[in-house]
Design brief:
198 residues, 33% helix, transmembrane helix, transmembrane, Multidrug transporter, membrane
Length: 198
């Protein structure tokens, strides 16, 4: 008997709630207000993404993605400077015989894909030795990507581009370009060309 009473009371409450909802137009206003707040939230997320991506360099056809200069500081010890087109310069102390540069290429996801590339950022700079035992013991990797990029993963997808290992040589100057979906480093001066040939 108690169960039927509770079911009857719930039916009366449901009918009373339906009457209140249908007679008063607050439900429509609530739905419109919620949609407006959701649109404001989406606009805020996009502004936040733009502010994070604004400092990133954009790829321009025919323009190098980075310029790399190398200075010797001792036996198998080098200072490697990576200059990006937006004016950012990153300096790294590397040990070894070879260097490699990795970039993260960012592309907008889904509905934002029509915007084209979102930009690119320096992912990793590494040095290695030609002698395997020495490389295992002393190889260095620098990863400058900060955690502040992690929230962008649901707005952008990333492609890792790597330039192959190239020789470290005092005074060498290289430019890094994207060709056919891969990175290529090109020598810009005599020291780089001599190291490239050796």
């Amino acid at each position: 008997m108690a169960i039927w009473s509770l079911l009857g009371a719930s039916l009366v409450l449901a009918l009373a709630g339906a009457v209140v909802l249908l007679r008063h137009r607050w439900l429509r206003g609530w739905l419109i207000g919620s949609a407006g707040l959701a649109l404001w939230g989406a606009a805020g997320v996009l502004v936040w993404a733009v502010l994070l991506l604004q400092p990133l360099p954009r790829a321009v056809d025919g323009q190098p993605l980075a310029t790399v200069s190398i200075r010797a500081e001792g036996p198998q010890q080098y200072q490697l400077s990576v200059a990006l087109p937006n004016g950012d310069v990153h300096d790294y102390a590397l040990r070894g015989d070879l260097w490699q540069l990795d970039l993260q290429w960012l592309q907008w996801r889904s509905l934002l894909a029509w915007l084209g590339p979102a930009g690119y950022r320096l992912q990793e700079v590494s040095g290695r030795y030609l002698v395997l035992e020495q490389d295992r013991a002393q190889a260095e990797v620098h990863n400058p990507v900060a955690n502040r990029w992690q929230p962008l993963q649901w707005l952008t997808h990333e492609q890792l581009l790597s330039a192959r290992f190239l020789p470290l040589a005092d005074g060498a100057l290289f430019e890094v370009v994207r060709a056919g979906g891969v990175l290529q480093a090109r020598p810009l001066n005599g020291a780089a060309e001599a190291a490239w040939r050796d």
